[in-house]
Design goal:
Layout lengths: L2 H14 L3 H15 L10 H7 E4 L2 E4 L1 H17 L1
Antiparallel strand pairs: 1-2
Helix pairs in contact: 1-2, 1-4, 2-3, 2-4
């Protein structure tokens, strides 16, 4: 898969998300894939809270967040 196709696919994932935090996560992943100067650390704490649920004092990614990360990860591996 070409870089252009990966970026298009990640854009499609981002466009289909309704949750602002997940859109932000997808935008950061898109920036990472495109080489833009945006780091994961720029995802806000509020977005992190939205992406996680607490369990026994630990943060656990929500199922939707895990699914989005899985799609982005697969796209990135395919492009490599």
């Amino acid at each position: 898969m070409s870089d252009e196709n990966v970026l298009f696919a990640v854009n499609m994932v981002a466009a289909s998300l309704s949750d602002d935090a997940l859109k932000q996560l997808a935008a950061v992943a898109l920036a990472e894939l495109s080489g833009a100067p945006l780091a994961w650390e720029e995802v806000t704490l509020a977005a992190t809270r939205d992406l996680c649920e607490g369990r026994d004092g630990r943060a656990v990614l929500t199922p939707l967040a895990r699914a989005v990360l899985g799609v982005i990860s697969r796209l990135a591996r395919t492009a490599a």
